[in-house]
Structure formats: structure tokens, C-alpha cells
Write a structure and sequence with these properties.
Elements lengths: L1 H10 L2 H15 L3 H9 E3 L5 E3 L5 E6 L2 E6 L2 E5 L7 E2 L7 E4 L7 E5 L1
Antiparallel strand pairs: 1-2, 3-4, 4-7, 5-6, 5-8
Length: 110
């Protein structure tokens, strides 16, 4: 039953998700936060559970190029605390030039 609710939850809009959370709480006796967590997790091929809502990011350096693989929207900044801006044309995987004379920071957001 939880699998069916998860599939519906992944495809649902915000208003319908609220109803699915309420159904999960009523049917399974979960607290609201536990119901949301249970619906947000998806089973992968290997049986490993991952949170479908969180974006991912990985970097691989090859020579002078860096390959950025991500889900969500890619942003970059010259400072870890600085203002991040959207990377234009950021489709995963994205090859970006290695920074010269400083650092470059990346993050992936929903």
C-alpha cells in the first residue's frame, strides 16, 4: 500500500500531496513528519533507499576540465559564502573549465 501511495505522491501536485499525507497518517498511524518521510523515499534498483526530494552533485576533474553531474538546478560562486548564480546552459553532465587564479564553488538546488 505504501508503494502505491509513494508513486502517487511523486507525481502529485502540492494540493494532492497534502491529501496523500493525510491518508498515510490515517491508514498507517504515522505522525505527519514520518508520513512525509515515508512518502518521499523511493526504492532504487539495488534496494538502497534514497530521498527523491534532495538534489545531488558530483565533480570529476580530467585535465583542465571539470565534469559536474547533478540533479536539480546548478549554481556557482567564487566564494563559499558569496552569492550563488545559476549556471547558464547547465544540463547534467556539464563540462566546465577549471578555475584559474582562484576557487569556484558549485551547488545544486531544487
Amino acid at each position: 500500500m505504501l508503494r502505491k501511495l509513494r508513486r502517487c505522491y511523486q507525481d502529485a501536485g502540492a494540493e494532492h500531496r497534502k491529501k496523500l499525507i493525510d491518508q498515510t497518517i490515517e491508514l498507517l498511524g504515522y505522525h505527519r513528519k514520518s508520513g512525509i518521510r515515508a512518502l518521499s523515499f523511493v526504492q532504487t534498483e539495488r534496494g538502497r533507499r534514497t530521498n527523491a526530494g534532495r538534489p545531488t552533485l558530483s565533480l570529476n576533474r580530467t585535465g583542465d576540465a571539470i565534469t559536474v553531474t547533478f540533479t536539480g538546478n546548478l549554481q556557482s560562486s567564487t566564494s563559499i559564502r558569496g552569492a550563488f548564480s545559476k549556471v547558464t546552459g547547465g544540463a547534467s553532465p556539464d563540462a566546465v573549465p577549471a578555475p584559474t587564479g582562484g576557487s569556484r564553488f558549485y551547488r545544486s538546488i531544487k
